Amino acid sequence: MKFKQQFLALAAVMACGGAMAQSSVTMYGVLDVSVGKTTGGSFGMNGGKSATSPAQSYHTPTRIGFRGTEDLGGGLKANFNLESGGLSLVDGGPNLNFSRDAWVGLSGNFGSTRFGRTSSFGTQGHARFDLNGISTSSAMDNAGISPVTWYGSSRRSAQLQYVTPNFSGFDAGVSLVLAGNNEDQRSMQVRANYGNGPLAVGYVA
Questions:
Q1: Is residue 16 part of a domain?
Q2: Which of 46, 56, 175, 193 has fewest C-beta within 10 Å?
Q3: Taking the complete model, does pTM exceed 0.70, yes or no?
Q4: Residue 112: how many CA atoms within 13 Å on its side-chain side?
Q5: What range does the domain containing 108 cover?
Q6: How far apart are CA 129 and CA 21, in angstroms?
Q7: What CATH number has the domain bearing residue 97?
Q8: What is the mean pLDDT of the chain?
């Protein structure tokens, strides 16, 4: 009974907060599956025969996500994003563990912050210049010159990011990955981006 009363009280507070501020939650996702045929080689029971089979994805992983914004007033907003991968259109196996994105943050006149598991600055900058973005069909990734290749993953856990407001096309940011996520060593990235008209330049270190 005590838990139920606490839950009802929390629900009431959330309802009041929703009445005072404007909020939105968006559900989004990607469904990607392919069918491929391989000829020759070894296929176990098939020997050197051809084999046709469905694959998990062709261009980008199948996923489902939820992103939301809560207007706190005075130009300040609370934001979150939860995105799960591991969804299979081959066997229907779900894996809703939000391993792709799981972060909260604030945004306003000061810029924006994220805390949790999210993409690295290297990944965010790289995606702007790759025709296919960060995907399994990325030409730059297949050539071994993407952040996924350099760092082994496009995301980092226990990450704190800050990005400045955009000043006539220029913004900068700093990112700190806390100890415990990178062999008990902290790591830091800084970035600077400029984009105005046909010109776009990015730097990450």
A1: no
A2: 46
A3: yes
A4: 14
A5: 22-28+64-204
A6: 37
A7: 2.40.160.10
A8: 77
CA atoms within 13 A on the CB side of 99: 10
Name the residue among 104, 122, 124, 115 with its Cα closest to residue 159: 115
Q: How many domains does the chain have?
A: 1
102: in domain: yes
Taking the C-alpha atoms of residue 161 and residue 104, their distance in angstroms, rounded to an integer, is 11
Report yes or no on 68 lying in a domain. yes
Classify residue 168 as left (phi > 0), alpha (psi -120 to 50) or beta. Answer: left
Task: Give the model confidence (pLDDT) of 135-168 as tens digits.
Answer: 666 767 667 776 666 665 678 888 999 999 999 9
Q: Which residues contact 134 (CB under 8 A, 6 or more apart)?
A: 119, 123, 126, 127, 141, 146, 147, 148, 154
- Whole-angstrom Cα Rg for the chain: 21
